């Protein structure tokens, strides 16, 4: 792992994300790219050119001053870090920057929500990045001091569109020498599947992914019955005290996927454990 991108708005949430990035960077000898997006307001943009330039310069210098203060934090000692300040605030464009800079991982902080309704991520900057990013996005929710990457639960529907996300997840698990469980949530009603049906689907999926390791990896598969995918992922990951929840996300809503209603993004918003998402 060479580069980690951390969007920074100088809130306690982005500071927690930066702490985790520093933890990972030290272990992986990686560089952190700390990104601040100014988001100059429309009120500024309708002023005359001289006023617009003056106000934009003011915000740029303020951001630079805040960066200078942030970089003095002890947790960033001995970490290679590059600052980027952009004069716009379109979070979907972070993916373009990640591609341009050859970023391996994006880390963001999120305060989450207490409302378990389906569209929990509307208006969330973290959600915008999760949906559009082609590289893994790690969402940090709790105190970074307790962060570990020793075990993970990868929750999946084990359908072929999830193969890309699965491959990327396995690569990350191996890179960090993580123990992992592959989790299938069995739901009641019309979506319920027998063990034989689930066996057939998952064995076919793992064989397609890598015929040589399919039998061995199948030993890591767990079936869990629950009333929703989200609850099942929470309940199982809490039961085994996994460090991280890993999920594929398709980046769109309204599709008849296992992660219907963008459940991947919903989990990232509600889980108290760190969540890492992989684009399908």
From TrEMBL:
<dbReference type="InterPro" id="IPR006016">
    <property type="entry name" value="UspA"/>
</dbReference>
<dbReference type="InterPro" id="IPR014729">
    <property type="entry name" value="Rossmann-like_a/b/a_fold"/>
</dbReference>
<protein>
    <submittedName>
        <fullName>Nucleotide-binding universal stress UspA family protein</fullName>
    </submittedName>
</protein>
<feature type="domain" description="UspA">
    <location>
        <begin position="153"/>
        <end position="278"/>
    </location>
</feature>
<feature type="domain" description="UspA">
    <location>
        <begin position="2"/>
        <end position="141"/>
    </location>
</feature>
<dbReference type="Pfam" id="PF00582">
    <property type="entry name" value="Usp"/>
</dbReference>
<comment type="similarity">
    <text>Belongs to the universal stress protein A family.</text>
</comment>
<dbReference type="InterPro" id="IPR006015">
    <property type="entry name" value="Universal_stress_UspA"/>
</dbReference>
